[in-house]
Every structure is written in structure tokens, then in C-alpha cells.
Specification:
Strand order of the largest sheet: 1-2
Strand content: under 5%
Number of strands: 6
Shape: elongated
Distance between the termini: 54 Å
Helix content: 55-70%
Order of helices and strands: HHHHHHHEEHEHEHHEHHEHHHHHH
Bound molecules: arginine
Length: 455
């Protein structure tokens, strides 16, 4: 008979039992469940609600079960609906009456909320560490390839030369924002629902501040209805994961492009590539693609929980049982993908000569040539048109701007002098962008220091 079986004359059939159970998913938070129970029992004893002896028996019994679960020796029973029933049932079988006193002044509703919050805090902490590791790699790669010049793009068309390090650091700042979101998700989870009981609080003189302290929460939740029915912190976590996966998908998309024959900007390490079962020459960026693809499931996890939560009346509803798997999946996926991305970046070869050669094509100097005229007094709009016509002339004659003779330049405008040559070099063009946050060497050096300070 289930622990709640008193008012029932018959049980559910096996399939219905299985349909209603959450034990398989709950197993991941077994240790959190036990920690919550130990804190609850300790507080109950301190408040004189159960005896010291009962508390000591409960504590030892739970410690024993904790060890059994950790060692994989715990005898799981498929008839247990969830982790709370499994642990409490085993405890009572093992130690008798004191075990049956554990659930005093508590409901599975505040218990499950406590377990999930403790678990979510750990997920956030783990993700924050993974995020830090990835950002450290980005800073490293930027530093090691500091001077490498590549074409910067808009619309995936050559735009202006930028430093490769600048490009890497753009991702650093994206992941820094993800870090902020993960810290916020951790803070959202960091509130104690225990003591809310089923929905309304309890008549026992519980000390909610004490369990808050014992479980390492920063605060107690001030409303019992909200305490048992809030899952916003899981949405926060899933949203943080989703945005970070989106950032990873952008990075991985570039890795896929850059490792293609057409780009050739990078060569992925063999340890982050796969071959083809039919085409002997193939070296595929599978892990970048897979990371890009896994974005979908994490967005799905977020959408699933948003939908589960929609229109739920207060307070606890069984729908809430569906809230656990998604965040676990989202966190595991992001954690794995961050690790893969860090490994790919760390081991890839940066083909500086190819990047530089490409930075010279596609008229990436055009803006600077227009700026040259504007600095000599021509209104920028006019300069833009003059250089546009020069580009058209070059295209018709199969030339780059750097191939034009002094006479050809002067035919476009009297303002051109021999010193225009200096404004055609991608390295110099990048260097000249000295504004804060720009791609000039000095600005990127300062940015790199700022990034390191943030880390
Ligand atoms: N297995 C449930 C869950 O995961 C625990 C809480 C159940 N409470 C209840 N009154 N049925 O949400």
C-alpha cells in the first residue's frame, strides 16, 4: 500500500502506477531529498516537535540510505511513486516508528520544491564553472593569435578587416552575459520553500529560518502558496541555457564555415573531427554541427516548461511533476556543449595567412579610402560615391583597389595622393580603429585586459 493509502480501498493498476510515477527522474535528486529530510528532522527536534532520540535515529537512518544510494546498493522499488516515498518508505522499514514521524509538518509539495531548488542550485553552479572554463579558452585563443587579421563580415560579405582576437573576444562577452544569467538563475533558486507544507503552512511551530540556514538557502519564501507552486527559477535556468546554446550555435556555425575548403580559416584537430564511411577524404566538423543542432532540444525544454506552467491554478498541481526533466536535460546539454566548444577552440589551428589573404579581397579597404577623401575635405557622402564608382571600375577591370595606379586614383579624384597606399593595407586598416571597443590593436589589447579582469 502506498504511504498515502489509508483512504483507498483498491490501488491503481501497474500501468497507471507507472504513468503517475516520477521516481526515475527523481533519482538524480536523491541526495537533495535526504539533505532536506535531515534538516527538517533536526529542526523538528530543536523545536521539541519530535524527540532527540527519534531525530538521532532518523538522521542515522537517512545517512545510511544516502550511502546505499551513492554506492548503487539501494534497492529501488518500482512501486514507489517518487523519491520522497522511496526514501521515507525505506527509512521507516529500516528504523520503524521514528521514521514514521519524519513527515510531521511537511508535505511532498514543499519537499519536492526544496529538492528541486537544491538541485537547481547545483546545476547552476556547475554551469557557471563550465562557462568560466570556456571563457578562459576564448581569452587564451585571442591572446595567442592576437595580431591575426581576418575579414570582418556583414551579411556574410566582406566588410572591413578585423583582428581575429577581436572576433574571439566578441564571444567572450556573449558568454559573460550568459554567466550573469546563470548567476541570476542560481539566486532565483536560492530560496527555501520547506515549511510551506501542502499549501498553507502548518500548525506545528516550525522554524523556517533554521531549515533555511541548515540547507544553505539565502532566504525563506514568504508565501506558502507561492513556495509550493513556483517553478520560475527553472524557467530562468532554462532561459539562461537557451541563450547560451544560441551563442554556442553561432560560434559553431562559424567553426563549420571556417573549416570548409571555401574558407580554410581554421583546421580542426583530428580529435574534434570525424570521417565518412564512404568518402575517404572527408574530415567533418561533426561536433560543431551537433552543438549547433542541440540548441533545438534546449529551446524545446524551455518551451515545454513554459507551456506546462501556463494557466496552472494555485497551489500544487500534479502537472508540476513534469518540470524536472527539461531543466536537467538543458543543463546537461549546455554543460557538454561548452566543454566540446572549449576543446575545439583550444586545439584548432588558426590559418593566419589564409585569413589575411582573404582580408585583402572583397574591397575591404573601401570605407577607409572614402574616409581618406573625407579627411581631405570631401563630404563623406560624395566620397562614398567616388569610391563606389572606383569599386565598380575595379570589378569591370578585374582589379583590386590595391592594383590601381596613381593615375587611376587621380582620375577618380584630384584629392588622391601617393599616401593612399597606406590605407589599403588590412593590417593598417584594423590598427587605425582606435575607438574604445574597436578592432585596433591598442583597443583590443585594452579589451583583452578588461576581459581578464572580468574573469
Ligand atoms: N512526485 C511529485 C512531484 O514530483 C511530488 C509531489 C507530489 N505531491 C502530491 N500531492 N501528489 O511533483
Amino acid at each position: 500500500m502506498a504511504l498515502w493509502g489509508g483512504r483507498f480501498e483498491k490501488g491503481v493498476d501497474a500501468f497507471t502506477q507507472e504513468f503517475g510515477a516520477s521516481l526515475e527522474v527523481d533519482k538524480a535528486m536523491a541526495q537533495q531529498d535526504i539533505a532536506g529530510s535531515r534538516a527538517h528532522a533536526k529542526m523538528l527536534a530543536e523545536q521539541g516537535i519530535i524527540s532527540e532520540d527519534d531525530q538521532a535515529a532518523i538522521d542515522a537512518g537517512l545517512a545510511d540510505i544516502s550511502g546505499q544510494i551513492e554506492r548503487g546498493e539501494f534497492a529501488w522499488d518500482v512501486n514507489d511513486e517518487d523519491i520522497h516515498m522511496a526514501v521515507e518508505g525505506a527509512l521507516t522499514r529500516n528504523i520503524g516508528t521514528p521514521g514514521a514521524r519524519l513527515h510531521t509538518g511537511r508535505s511532498r509539495n514543499d519537499q519536492v520544491a526544496t529538492d528541486i531548488r537544491l538541485y537547481a542550485k547545483e546545476l547552476c553552479q556547475h554551469l557557471i564553472e563550465g562557462n568560466d572554463a570556456l571563457r578562459r579558452v576564448l581569452v587564451d585563443v585571442a591572446e595567442k593569435n592576437f595580431d591575426v587579421v581576418m575579414p570582418g563580415y556583414t551579411h556574410l560579405q566582406h566588410a572591413q578587416p578585423v583582428l581575429f582576437s577581436h572576433h574571439m573576444l566578441a564571444y567572450f562577452w556573449m558568454f559573460t552575459r550568459d554567466h550573469t544569467r546563470l548567476v541570476a538563475a542560481l539566486d532565483a533558486a536560492d530560496a527555501n520553500p520547506l515549511g510551506a507544507a501542502a499549501l498553507a503552512g502548518t500548525t506545528y511551530p516550525l522554524n523556517r529560518q533554521r531549515t533555511t540556514e541548515l540547507l544553505g538557502f539565502s532566504r525563506a519564501i514568504p508565501n506558502s502558496l507561492d513556495a509550493v507552486s513556483d517553478r520560475d527559477y527553472l524557467l530562468d535556468l532554462e532561459y539562461a541555457c537557451s541563450v547560451s546554446m544560441m551563442h554556442l550555435s553561432r560560434l559553431c556555425e562559424e567553426i563549420v564555415l571556417w573549416s570548409s575548403t571555401e574558407f580554410g580559416f581554421i583546421t580542426l584537430s583530428d580529435s574534434y573531427s570525424t570521417g565518412s564511411s564512404i568518402m575517404p577524404q572527408k574530415k567533418n566538423p561533426d561536433f560543431a554541427e551537433l552543438t549547433r543542432g542541440k540548441c533545438g532540444r534546449v529551446y524545446g525544454d524551455l518551451m515545454a516548461l513554459l507551456t506546462t506552467m501556463k494557466s496552472l491554478p494555485l497551489a500544487y498541481n500534479k502537472d508540476l511533476q513534469e518540470c524536472k526533466e527539461g531543466p536537467m536535460d538543458a543543463a546537461k546539454t549546455l554543460s557538454d556543449c561548452m566543454e566540446i566548444a572549449a576543446g575545439m577552440l583550444e586545439t584548432m589551428q588558426v590559418n593566419a595567412d589564409v585569413m589575411l589573404a582573404q582580408a585583402k579581397t572583397g574591397f575591404t579597404a573601401a570605407t577607409d579610402v572614402a574616409d581618406y577623401l573625407a579627411k581631405k575635405g570631401m563630404p563623406f557622402r560624395d566620397a562614398h560615391r567616388v569610391v563606389g564608382e572606383l569599386v565598380l571600375y575595379c570589378e569591370k577591370n578585374g582589379k583590386g583597389l590595391e592594383d590601381l595606379t596613381a593615375d587611376e586614383f587621380r582620375a577618380a579624384s584630384e584629392l588622391f595622393d601617393d599616401d593612399i597606399a597606406a590605407d589599403l593595407d588590412p593590417e593598417g586598416i584594423a590598427r587605425a580603429r582606435t575607438t574604445y571597443g574597436g578592432t585596433g590593436h591598442a583597443a583590443v589589447r585594452a579589451q583583452l585586459e578588461e576581459a581578464k579582469a572580468v574573469l
